[in-house]
Amino acid sequence: MTTSSINYSKKLNLRRTRAIELEAEPTGTLVVSCKRPYQKKERRLDGRVLMVEDFNNPPTNLLTLKVPTQILQCPPCHQHYLLGKISALNLLDASKVQRIVSTAQDLVATGTGYFIVAELEILRVEVVNVFDLSNFIESTIESMISKASIDKLARRGSFVASSKSQELDLGTCTICLEEFSSSPEAKLIRMDCCHVYHLACMYPWLENRSTTCPCCRFNIN
């Protein structure tokens, strides 16, 4: 079973040059193009996200605009003209449109023309959640077996340290590195491999990290 989600992100790249020409009057040229790259990713059951497809198609030309000289000479007319032409594309939000217009206005203010290429990139990312039912069932069964084995071990191997016996000479719990002699009356657990630990240390170890003995890797399953 799989589910998928699709996200879009937009990025605007501007390349601009001053168009210094032999004519007495400056000219303005604006080119707007669009790239639509596509990425497909798979999110596996273990949380890994893998790239399975990365397609980067060539840009498509959306607009080539040669601004009339008389409009360049009137800043309010120039701004209104560009705003109308770019907004008609219905692809750019207001902030990106304003960025293009401001760039053109700044270049005109220097007394030269301009040649601006505005490349819009619309990235489409599809994330497919791959749900492998067979692996899920297998991991669930393994988890249930491990939990049953831990409970069985706890019932069979747990005991309470007594200051009147020899238990306090068992040495150190290699999980918390605390001497058993410093915790009389503490609950301990003896593994089938005969290694001894604090029960409070061993339970989290077996449930969250490994079903093996920390010392000898004996598997309780």
Automatic annotation (TrEMBL):
<dbReference type="InterPro" id="IPR051834">
    <property type="entry name" value="RING_finger_E3_ligase"/>
</dbReference>
<dbReference type="GO" id="GO:0005634">
    <property type="term" value="C:nucleus"/>
</dbReference>
<dbReference type="GO" id="GO:0006511">
    <property type="term" value="P:ubiquitin-dependent protein catabolic process"/>
</dbReference>
<keyword id="KW-0479">Metal-binding</keyword>
<dbReference type="InterPro" id="IPR001841">
    <property type="entry name" value="Znf_RING"/>
</dbReference>
<dbReference type="InterPro" id="IPR013083">
    <property type="entry name" value="Znf_RING/FYVE/PHD"/>
</dbReference>
<keyword id="KW-0862">Zinc</keyword>
<dbReference type="GO" id="GO:0061630">
    <property type="term" value="F:ubiquitin protein ligase activity"/>
</dbReference>
<dbReference type="Pfam" id="PF13639">
    <property type="entry name" value="zf-RING_2"/>
</dbReference>
<feature type="domain" description="RING-type">
    <location>
        <begin position="173"/>
        <end position="217"/>
    </location>
</feature>
<protein>
    <recommendedName>
        <fullName>RING-type domain-containing protein</fullName>
    </recommendedName>
</protein>
<dbReference type="GO" id="GO:0008270">
    <property type="term" value="F:zinc ion binding"/>
</dbReference>
<keyword id="KW-0863">Zinc-finger</keyword>
